[in-house]
Amino acid sequence: MQAKTIIPVEKSLSYTIQKPGTYLFEITKAGVELEVAGVFAAAGHDMTQVVVIIHHKSAHTRANTTLKGVARDHASLTFVGRIIIDENCGDSHSFLTERILLLSDTAHAKAVPDLEIKTDDVSCSHAASVSNIPDDHIFYLMSRGLSRSQAEEMIVEGFLEISALG
Prior knowledge:
Blueprint: E1 4-9, E2 13-17, E3 21-27, E4 33-42, E5 47-56, E6 62-71, E7 76-85, E8 92-102, E9 108-117, E10 122-132, H1 135-142, H2 148-160
Parallel strand pairs: 1-3, 2-4, 3-5, 4-6, 5-7, 6-8, 7-9, 8-10
Helix pairs in contact: 1-2
């Protein structure tokens, strides 16, 4: 089992998660803005899990978390995202996005969002999806001269593009 990485957030921060594990971001100062992003690919028999906890411990804070991934072959990819907003932490805003593409019938994925809101006057939500590449997207690119594998890789590259986060 991997250890939890605890990241105190006392000033605005952009953080890129680069490897699987458990990450706890503790926002402890008013006015702080946090951006968290992670992109993951699981292949073969990989069992990849990423857990992100955003804990608002101060009022007037902002956080945006985006996790994207693909799972192919017999791999398993799990995203667990949790937002906690403590009591007396009004005017906090937090959003969590978890998106996973399955690239084979034997790959598995889970996107598990969770919200724990202990106060009023907050804006907090999540979005999660696990899907395959639509056949019409593959067909369109193949009709333009790409092979099936080239079309799939082009779609995956666009899906995982860092600038496409959000």
